[in-house]
Structures are given as C-alpha cells and as structure tokens.
Design a protein that fits this description.
- By secondary structure, the chain is an all-alpha fold.
- The chain folds into 2 domains: 3-152, Serine Threonine Protein Phosphatase 5, Tetratricopeptide repeat, CATH 1.25.40; 163-315, Leucine-rich Repeat Variant.
- It is built from 19 helices and no strands.
- Helix 10 packs antiparallel against helix 11, helix 16 (260-273) packs parallel to helix 18 (289-299) and helix 17 (276-285) runs antiparallel to helix 18.
- The protein is globular.
Length: 316
C-alpha cells in the first residue's frame, strides 16, 4: 500500500468516526490526488493532518494555527480542522468561536457547512444527554435545570443575526481592515455595559490581533484587571492565539491566584500550548491535591519527555 493511499484511508476513517456529516471535508481527500500532493507540500498542514490521525489534538491546533497565521490558500480548511480539534479537547466554546472566525472571514466558504455541522452536533448531544438523565432517575431534574440555566446564561454567544452579532461581525471586519480604529472600539466593548456574551466575542476578536495595543488589552484581561467573568475566556484565547509566547504570563497568573477555577483554566491553557516542563514545575509545587491531580492527568496525555520523566518520578 502506497503512502498516499494509506494517508487517504486514514483520513477517511478519522472523518467517519467523528459522527459529523462533513461531506465537504471527506470527498476531496478521497477523490483528488492533486490535493493530497499539495497538502503534503505544506509542512504545517501536513503536520496538522498527521496529528489528527494520531489524535494529538493540541498538536493539531498548533499546526493549523501556523497555516492560519500564514494566511495561505488553505486557511478555510485549517480553521475548520482547528475547530474540530478544539472540540475534541472539550473546548466547545473555542471551537464555536473558531467557526465564527471562519464565517466572518469568508461567509461564502463551503467549509462553513462543516463548521455548522460540528457545532450543531455538539448542541444536539448535550440536549440528548440531559434528556437521558431525566429519564434515568429523580436527579435528572437538577441536571436538566442546569442545562436550561446554561442556555439562558449571559455566557452563551450572541444569537446569530442579532444586533450584537452584527456589531461583532462589523468589528471583526474592521479589525482586519483598520486595526487602529477597531482596537479602541473593542476595548470600549470590554469595559462598557454590553452583555457578557458580547464581551467574550469581542475578546476573541481582539485576541487574533498581534498589535502591541491588542496584546496589552488581552494581557489585562488574562491577569484579572478587567471584568472577572472574562478572565478564564481570556486565558484560553491567549493560549490558542499566542501559543508558547503566552506561557510566561499564564504561569504568573497561576502563581498569583488562589481561585481554583482560574488555576484549572491555566492548566488547560498550558496543555493547549504543550508546555510540559512548566506544568511539571507547577505540579511539583502545588499543595492542593485535587489541582495537582488535574495537572498530572493532563501531563499523562502529553507526548513529551518532561511529562514522561515526571510520571516515572511519581511511580518511585
């Protein structure tokens, strides 16, 4: 079996196992030898595809980020596969936000259909879980109430087509065309009286900019100098868009906070950036057993010498 055929079959198995009707994503990989050869010429895209096949979701996110940042011709598909990988990591809100980025960037892209299928599948699975729990025992009422509260909470995204949603699409477009005008407006959203959902969307848009002013605002949100409800979202966005550049700030936040939820967000962010050495350092100094257990569980999923060495250290 040739390498090209093996790659094609592996990709097909991966897509079929995802339980997502992603016809656009499946058909080209099976039908176009030229596309396969083209993908193999692109190092970052190829690395991301290999990470998908190996179920190394953080590596896939990092690789497709490189394709996105390079603004190449595969940026649409890279955004979809990044969203897919984030969803596999349990980061459904970040996956949805990445799909929003794809729609804002190119509303006509056929990859939007795949992203829609991805986010709809997540939503349906959540509802099904709540319904199943309701039928199992009396505790289901509490679970169902929790799901309903989540759906009605300000943490949800602005309704598509709403006034807030249109404003965020406009700001995202303005950021790409005229960052000097867009960034002060985004700061105004983050410090104003807008809904939490709109603030989180503004934060996501802002995190995509590499301008010093935008990164300064994101840093303030990450370190808790803005709306406390935004801090965890900011931590995740910094990890996704800045990668390892964010790690020093993330560790600083971890060491200066006593909030276990913020610590968990930092641990998750360091997992996204695959900084095993810093995670090992935090695990060694962490006094809270539950938090330490969370770090160790993330390290156990990482293919890194520092993580492996620490696992062996714990077994002694």
């Amino acid at each position: 079996m040739t390498p090209s055929i093996r790659t094609t079959l592996s990709s097909a198995v991966l897509l079929l196992s995802a339980a997502i009707p992603s016809l656009h994503a499946l058909t080209p990989e099976l039908s176009s030898i030229d596309l396969i050869a083209e993908v193999q010429d692109d190092g970052a895209y190829t690395a991301g595809s290999k990470a998908l096949e190996d179920h190394r979701w953080p590596d896939a996110v990092a690789s497709f980020d490189k394709v996105i940042n390079a603004k190449g011709k595969r940026i649409d598909s890279a955004l979809y596969w990044k969203a897919y990988s984030l969803n596999k990591l349990g980061k459904s809100r970040l996956a949805s936000a990445t799909c929003d980025q794809l729609r804002a960037q190119d509303a006509s892209s056929s990859w939007n259909r795949d992203c829609s299928a991805l986010t709809v599948t997540v939503h349906v699975d959540t509802q099904a879980l709540a319904e199943n729990l309701k039928n199992i025992n009396a505790q289901a009422n509490e679970v169902t109430d929790s799901f309903n509260a989540l759906a009605d909470s300000p943490d949800s995204h602005p309704a598509r087509g709403s006034d807030e949603d249109l404003k965020m699409l406009a700001l995202n477009s303005l950021l790409n065309q005229d960052p000097a005008r867009a960034i002060p407006l985004l700061r105004g959203v983050l410090t104003g009286n807008q809904s939490t959902a709109m603030k989180k969307h503004a934060l996501f848009v802002l995190a995509q900019s590499r301008s010093p002013e935008a990164e300064s605002i994101l840093h303030d949100a990450v370190t808790g100098k803005m709306d406390p409800q935004l801090q965890r979202e900011a931590i995740q966005s910094m990890a996704v868009f800045q990668g390892k550049r964010a790690n020093e700030t993330l560790v600083e936040v971890y060491k200066t906070t006593s909030d276990p939820q913020i610590k968990r967000s930092v641990i998750s962010a360091l997992f996204i950036t695959q900084d095993a050495p810093r995670m090992v350092e935090l695990a060694r100094t962490e006094k809270d057993l539950e938090t330490k257990r969370r770090i160790v569980s993330e390290l156990a999923l990482m293919n890194d010498k520092a993580a492996t060495d620490y696992m062996m250290e714990l077994l002694k």
